[in-house]
Design goal:
about 180 residues; alpha/beta; Rossmann fold; 5-stranded parallel sheet; 5 helices
């Protein structure tokens, strides 16, 4: 079983803390491939490709899902209900992505859920976890562009922070057969 994300409440910075369960091997010094697990087809392709590349190169995959915080101010009960529903949906997405990564790599990925802005949380995780070596993103096929995260990183790579890492952009129009061939 992969890393289990446990909710310990909001930290000082407003993010959920994660605690790994006892099955995480802290001595595992393999590099990690980071995938932003968003509920879209192009992110699913990025997870597929990262799993295949991880198997080929001996890396691990880390899945990150970021919950955008609801903004309801004084409607605390509505906010808590929305947070619970968003967390449940995030867990469903991560389980789906984890199954795909395991099918391709043979290993359970690390799963992380945090609350905040995607760019901020991505930057924070990359800066904290020095085993993360490559970021895999899926590019949308929509006419309005490849997606907000891919666009932001293309325009301003500093979004990744002080520790820049390579970014693999998986085209949303790619087929799984094409990605299998590329993964080796």
């Amino acid at each position: 079983m992969g890393v289990i994300v446990k909710w310990t409440g909001l930290s000082v910075s407003g993010h959920y803390k994660k605690m790994a369960n006892a099955t995480e091997n802290s001595e595992d010094d393999r590099v990690k491939f980071l995938v932003v697990a968003a509920d879209c087809d192009e992110a699913r392709l990025a997870a597929f490709f990262s799993g295949r590349r991880a198997k080929r190169s001996g890396a691990r995959v880390t899945l990150l899902h970021v919950l955008e915080p609801p903004e309801f101010g004084h409607w605390a009960s509505v906010e808590e209900t929305m947070r619970a529903e968003a967390r449940e949906h995030a867990e469903e997405i991560l389980h789906e992505f984890a199954a795909e990564v395991k099918a391709q790599s043979g290993e359970d990925p690390e799963e992380i859920i945090v609350e905040g802005r995607v760019v901020d949380e991505l930057k924070s995780l990359i800066e904290r976890d020095h085993k993360i070596a490559i970021l895999f993103l899926g590019a949308s096929t929509h006419a309005d562009g490849p997606g907000p995260l891919v666009s932001a990183l293309a325009q301003k790579p500093a979004y990744l922070g002080a520790r820049p890492i390579p970014v693999v952009v998986v085209p949303g129009a790619a087929t799984r057969d094409e990605l299998r061939r590329l993964a080796g």
